[in-house]
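Table S2 (continued). Query chain:
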Amino acid sequence: MAARVLVVGGGGREHAIAWALARSPQVEEILVAPGNAGTGREAKCRNVAVAASDLDGIVELAAGEGVDLVVVGPEDPLVAGIVDRLRDADIRAFGPDAAAARLEGSKSHCKEFLLRHGIPTGAAATFSDAEAALAHLATL
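Corresponding output:
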């Protein structure tokens, strides 16, 4: 049975993913939301006007189209929890859950995680105040 795959995103990364999937005999159709001019021209691909940031829309699209697998490209919907929502709806998804995606989405969170778990990392400091950041720079 050939699979129907939904690729979430509209950039070059998602185009490359759709292009590679289109070459598989195991893939029947690829929906790309929202896609781009290039993905719209790929064999087996169909662009769908659902923004990558529309998490409810992505879940509804995947369920309504009977998608077998969702591949999420952009970081923002991953950090927002799209994979968690898809899994809650019993839809298979390729990508990290929100907690894991946060390591990539927040450099300060990642740094805190590395330090907390004794993972070697470079020195860093995080600031929410410009004056404090400037004062720190003066000490370097």
